[in-house]
Amino acid sequence: MADIDPWERNIDWQLLIAFSHSNRAITRLTRAVGLTPGQPKILQYLTTHNGCTQKEIGEGCALDKSTVTSILTRMEADGLITRSVRAGNRREACVLLTEPGAERAHVAAANTARVDEVALDGLTEDERRQLSDLLARVIRNLKQNGGEA
Length: 149
Hints:
The mean pLDDT is about 90. The relative contact order is 0.12. A 3-stranded antiparallel β-sheet has the order 1-3-2. Helix 3 (about 55-60) packs across helix 4. The radius of gyration is 18 Å and the shape is globular. It contains 6 helices and 3 strands. It is mainly α.
C-alpha cells in the first residue's frame, strides 16, 4: 500500500472523506429518480421502521429535528409518505411509507448497495464484515459520549 500522510490516518478525516465520496455518488444516482438529499436515507429507515415517529427517524438517521421536518414535508407533498396521529398521543404522528415511497426505497437501497460495492471493491467478505463491525463500534462509542470528547 502506498505511503499515507499521518494526517490522513486520522479516523475523523477518513470518515469525512469516505462519507463525502459515498454521499456524492448516492446523491447523483438518487437525483436521477427524483429523490432529494436526505430522502433515500429516510426511505430506507422506514422500510424497517414503518410507523415510527419523526423523532425516531432523526435518531435513527442522525439528523436534527428541523432537517427531518423539512425532508418529511417534501416527502409527504411528493406522496412518498403519510403522517397520522398516533393512538393515545395526539401530539405524536406516525410516519408511514406509501406504495410509491416503498418503490423509491427499493431503488434507494439498490443505489446504496451499488455504491457500497464500489467502496468495498478488493475487500474480502471477512474484511467487509470486520470493517462493518469496527465502524459499528466507532458509532456506538460516539453515540455514548453524545458528541463530547
